[in-house]
Amino acid sequence: MTDLIHGVYTEGEKIADTKAPKVPVAGMWEKRKMDAALVNPANRRKLSVIIVGTGLAGGAAAATLGEAGYHVKSFCYQDSPRRAHSIAAQGGINAAKNYKEDGDSVYRLFYDTVKGGDYRSRETNVYRLAEVSANIIDQCVAQGVPFAREYGGLLDNRSFGGVQVSRTFYARGQTGQQLLIGAYQALERQVAAGTVEMFTRHEMLELIVEDGRARGIIARDLVTGEIQTHLADAVVLASGGYGNVFFLSTNAMGSNVTANWRAHRKGAYFGNPCYTQIHPTCIPVSGDHQSKLTLMSESLRNDGRIWVPKKREDCEKDPRTIPEADRDYYLERIYPAFGNLVPRDIASRQAKNMCDEGRGVGPMVGDFRRGVYLDFADAIKRLGQKAVEEKYGNLFDMYARITGENPYETPMRIYPAVHYTMGGLWVDYDLQSTIPGLFVTGEANFSDHGANRLGASALMQGLADGYFVLPNTIRDYLAKGPFPKVSEDAPAVVEARTAVEERTKRLLAIKGERSVDSFHKELGNIMWEYCGMERTEAGLLKAIDLIRGLRAEFWRNVKILGSADTLNQSLEKAGRVADFLELGELMCIDALHRAESCGGHFRAESQTEDGEALRHDDQFLYVAAWEFGDGESDPNQPGSTMGAPVLHKEDLVYEAIELKQRSYK
Amino acid sequence: MATSTKSDPKNMDLTLRIWRQDGPSDRGHLQTYEVSDISPDMSFLEMLDVLNEQLNAKGEEPIAFDSDCREGICGMCGLMISGHAHGPEKTTTCQLHMRSFKDGDTITVEPWRADAFPIIKDLVVDRSSFDRIIQAGGFISVNTGSAPEANAAPVPKQKADRAFQSAECIGCGACVAACPNASAMLFMGAKVTHLGELPQGQPERWARVVSMVSQHDHEGFGGCTNTGACSVACPKGIPQDVISTLNKDLRTAMRQGG
Amino acid sequence: MATTTLSAPTARKTTIALKLLMAVTGAFFVLYVLLHMYGNLKVLAGQEAFDTYAHHLRTFGEPMLPYGGLLWIFRILLLGSLIGHAYAAFTLWSRAGSARKTKYAVLKTAASAQWMRWGGVAILLFVVWHLIHFTIVKPVINVDGPDAAAIKASPYTMVVASFQLWWMVLIYLLALAALGLHLAHGVFSAQQTLGFTQTPKARARAKGIGNLTAALVVVGFAIPPLSILFGLVK
Ligand SMILES: Cc1cc2nc3c(=O)[nH]c(=O)nc-3n(C[C@H](O)[C@H](O)[C@H](O)COP(=O)(O)OP(=O)(O)OC[C@H]3O[C@@H](n4cnc5c(N)ncnc54)[C@H](O)[C@@H]3O)c2cc1C
Ligand code: SF4
Ligand code: FES
């Protein structure tokens, strides 16, 4: 056995090839499509594909592959595919249409996305993303997605997330909903046509790998509790992000890492797990009962001014009584050029700094007041209440509903919250993981956003993957099939199935003292404290220890009532939390090993003199792809056998874009 | 059980009567619970979370209820709260906050009741009939990759706005729950109007409405009697006008021999 | 979950088609009720005018139509409408019943559906009584008033004799109240069903028309009996 680095991981071979065609990026996707083998329409029916997830990435792929004539089985844990968490996206979707003639282009979108990702994403994939972005808009409009329009009847755009061109398409504050309903309708059309079989309220709990290929999944019917085996020629995971490892996040209650984690345990590498995006404008926590956090669109920062009191004693006062001279508009002070519009990670970190200094506002949560003011008093004075209402009315209403305060009168309070996970299963140019036949799309993969995601680009990625990229690349794989039929009693299938049954049984048998939620909350606190906005070596090492202890306790002391053969929401949660307890450790290890600051990952040890993030391109210009470390079975953790993970580096090559340090000063 | 010491004078003690039903074949009953020290800043579902933690600690199985986004957009949540779908405010159950209630209140919580939404357990119902209505025709048939340039067909602002307003439906089913006839016309009207206002939706317009309405009836939803209870309950404020459009479209389809 | 999409859906078999039937037959009733009201108001013009009008209804169209022909055509149409209206109503009513077999323990929503249904039944019962009273049997109800022969000879005499009784007026007014409520919602509802209310403005207008029709009918029908009861018409 090789020596452990930092006592927690080992390093393996580099990833040599991402399978991108060896031509300049501009012609690469054309070439890949040209080279991909074709499948005769008559044969498609005989080829089956399992798609886990019905968000933008999964729904779009299922509809498209169904249309093409493949036999698709589609899964989601909600009661309808229309409820995938993509529905919650508010702001918009980017596309290089250049309708505004403001100098936008495929190249500029590509450049902005790579730069926004702090030069930690793969050029080839991002270029393709920018390239197909325009097609997405055409497709969605044809489906009837009601994007915002101008009086002339043409599509409207806005500028979003601090970029200088207007390339964001939107549908009021409900872009995600409208795009998802478009994909959902296309999906239901295929269900009616018989090409897609839909399994709602089904949760994937294991991946089946037979003969080195992904050949199916084990799923639990959440209503009857039945453990089912589903076999196919290829498996696609589009199961979304894992921000809920922090317990509190803007993700849906059910968002989880289980599908990804089970695949990871079966051999799929996990890319950059520690890259997490923390969004600066969320409604602060109001108390211990808090179950999730609500995002408010970033667009609020266009007109609102962010401040905290200069003096700690003022923190409890009515903000309106604090004179101008006693307010600290800290973003405007520190970043005079960008002011309140600095990127998400910077705005978030500074808010945390202010609160850590004891200058936060709002109710005490733990030892701190966790909130800063977002003040529209100036905007209302300048533009009039009516104009502000027109622009932000629905957001203000939402704020008022949740907090019971009127934002037209008192400044809003905001605080950062976990929002998006850039990390995910590692995939090559074809979106194929390290397990042949296992493809990963959308937020579930790691591919396009590097260390930080730009606003309005996750929707773009989900739909690009689902409608245009995956259907072309998976074709090349399927052309080699149909693969030999796998029988339900093949050893690999039985093994996967038994593992799920055992795990379920074991969870119910623990009959301990603590609820699943209490473990989840505790894990969330550890992650937020040590693997959140600012990370240190000592903190991460401590977190790894704490997580291991918590995981051991979980398997000893969790209390789950009810049975396995009916709807049992505690059991569902328990399975998800069990996987989060393993993922959390990997995230900390990844964060620990990356001793640089980049994008959403800020290591306190790596900053400039004035406290800004400092990248180390000489040491860390690579993707960290982690292989699951099969370790010794720990008798204290009967549910988990986690060994030290193995790091595989994929070097990042910048040919089309020149590397630069980000600066917003 | 309920202790009356409150950590904050604004907090509340409440009596809850909640529908418990083990499974589809169980008859079900209303069970009474007491909760105390409920903060007005909690959401209604967070209050139920608190109750569930208590039940779990006592060894009683927690109450099953649906929710996912808890932001009022996914349409997963939905409870009948003291006779109001999604409770007394015009919002979703997950966005209802406890400040809408008073100390000492008794709150009755029931699932959506409609035979087309069979109960799975406790407060969880099966709304897959909505998906089947969409399968029947709630889409525009366009295959991936065959779409024309997005700006090729301008849409007059007025039509775009009405389409958008109708497209805001989140498929929660509150309209059905509140309707004295358990009819899903508001849900269906919203979809028919959304697609029918757009140029892209024209080719399939008349066939769409006939198959959707037929599927609706086949699922066992009631017929509409224009009471408007749906619109009052709808968290997205979908107006009754969409039902008029639905009716008109069906009439046109009939004239065309559909 | 299996999908059970229908193979050959037709518009005619839908619940909306039933509603259309209800709307069209309802509209015909409204027309009839307004004509009827116009006739009733003739009571104010005195015995001769009223009796002539009643006679005229029967001779209208002669000799192309036989005596009472138009009235019979109207009656047949009305009967057909009644059957259609009631058929649609009862079918939808029973559908609604089976669409929610388990009722809510607590429910706070608009009661207008129940009003329409029970109100509709009440109106139907009243109409039966009304027909027996004024059209089919014409019994002597006011024993202190004119005899059977006088009643049969002059509709005016019959009407006036009946409404000199306070309780007759009361029954009549109660029926009117039911009719008013039925119309206020029904007239709006018909417009909604026919698709005339696709904007908030149109919907408000349709509601207005409903209320106005109801008010008009209630007032118009209430004037003659009240005038008789208070001795303004003798
Ligand atoms: C509040 C909010 C606002 C946002 N706003 C924007 C924005 O304005 N612009 C933008 O570009 N991006 C935005 N994002 C990000 C973006 O919405 C998501 O990254 C994106 O929609 C993810 O799509 P997806 O298809 O990958 O996954 P999801 O939409 O999350 O779908 C996951 C699917 O997987 C299924 N699933 C998961 N696990 C399992 C399992 N084990 N078994 C079976 N099924 C499973 C779920 O049922 C679901 O169908 C926002 C995100 C949030 C949370
Ligand atoms: S119309 Fe309104 S109440 Fe009905 S499903 Fe849609 S959003 Fe819910
Ligand atoms: S939980 Fe999504 S709308 Fe309430």
TrEMBL record, chain A:
Instruction: Reply yes or no: does the keyword Kinase apply.
Output: no
Q: Which UniProt keywords apply?
A: Cell membrane, Electron transport, FAD, Flavoprotein, Membrane, Oxidoreductase, Transport
Q: Which NCBIfam families match?
A: PRK07573.1, sdhA_Bsu
GO-annotated cellular components: plasma membrane
Q: How does it sit in the membrane?
A: Peripheral membrane protein
In which family does this protein belong, per the annotation? Belongs to the FAD-dependent oxidoreductase 2 family. FRD/SDH subfamily.
Active site (record annotation): 344
Q: Which reaction does it catalyse?
A: a quinone + succinate = fumarate + a quinol
Organism, scientific name: Phycicoccus elongatus Lp2
UniProt subcellular location: Cell membrane
Biological process according to GO: anaerobic respiration
Protein name listed in UniProt: succinate dehydrogenase
Q: Which PANTHER family match?
A: SUCCINATE DEHYDROGENASE 2 FLAVOPROTEIN SUBUNIT (PTHR11632), SUCCINATE DEHYDROGENASE FLAVOPROTEIN SUBUNIT (PTHR11632:SF53)
Q: Name one GO molecular function term.
A: electron transfer activity
Domain FAD-dependent oxidoreductase 2 FAD-binding per the UniProt entry, residue ranges: 49-459
Lineage in the entry? Answer: Bacteria, Bacillati, Actinomycetota, Actinomycetes, Micrococcales
InterPro entries cross-referenced by the UniProt entry: FAD-dep_OxRdtase_2_FAD-bd, FAD/NAD-bd_sf, Fum_R/Succ_DH_flav-like_C_sf, Fum_Rdtase/Succ_DH_flav-like_C, SdhA/FrdA/AprA, Succ_DH/Fum_Rdt_flav_su, Succ_DH/fumarate_Rdtase_cat_sf
Name its co-factor(s).
FAD
Can you tell which superkingdom this protein's organism belongs to? Answer: Bacteria
Q: What is its EC number?
A: 1.3.5.1
Enumerate the spans annotated as Fumarate reductase/succinate dehydrogenase flavoprotein-like C-terminal domain.
520-664
Automatic annotation (TrEMBL), chain B:
Q: Which cofactor names does the annotation list?
A: [2Fe-2S] cluster; [4Fe-4S] cluster; [3Fe-4S] cluster
Q: What are the BP-aspect GO terms?
A: respiratory electron transport chain; tricarboxylic acid cycle
The species this protein belongs to is Phycicoccus elongatus Lp2
Lineage here is: Bacteria, Bacillati, Actinomycetota, Actinomycetes, Micrococcales
Name-wise, this protein is succinate dehydrogenase
Q: What InterPro entries would the database entry show?
A: 2Fe-2S_ferredoxin-like_sf (IPR036010), 2Fe2S_fd_BS (IPR006058), 4Fe4S_Fe-S-bd (IPR017896), 4Fe4S_Fe_S_CS (IPR017900), Beta-grasp_dom_sf (IPR012675), Helical_ferredxn (IPR009051), SDH/FRD_Iron-Sulfur (IPR050573), Succ_DH/fum_Rdtase_Fe-S (IPR004489)
Could you tell me the EC number(s) of this protein?
1.3.5.1
UniProt domain 4Fe-4S ferredoxin-type: residue ranges: 160-191
Q: Is-annotated flag, keyword 4Fe-4S? A: yes
Tell me which family the UniProt entry assigns to this protein. Answer: Belongs to the succinate dehydrogenase/fumarate reductase iron-sulfur protein family.
PANTHER family attached here?
Answer: SUCCINATE DEHYDROGENASE (PTHR11921:SF41), SUCCINATE DEHYDROGENASE IRON-SULFUR PROTEIN (PTHR11921)
From TrEMBL, chain C:
GO cellular-component term (any): membrane
**Entry's InterPro entries?**
Cytochrome_b-558, SQR/QFR_C/D
Q: Which UniProt keywords apply?
A: Membrane, Transmembrane, Transmembrane helix
Q: Could you name the domain of life of the organism this protein comes from?
A: Bacteria
Transmembrane helix as a keyword of this entry, yes or no, is yes
- Answer whether the UniProt record assigns the keyword Membrane to this protein: yes
The portions of this protein that span the membrane are 16-35, 72-94, 115-136, 165-188, 209-233
State what protein this is by name. Answer: Succinate dehydrogenase, cytochrome subunit
| Gene giving rise to this polypeptide | sdhC
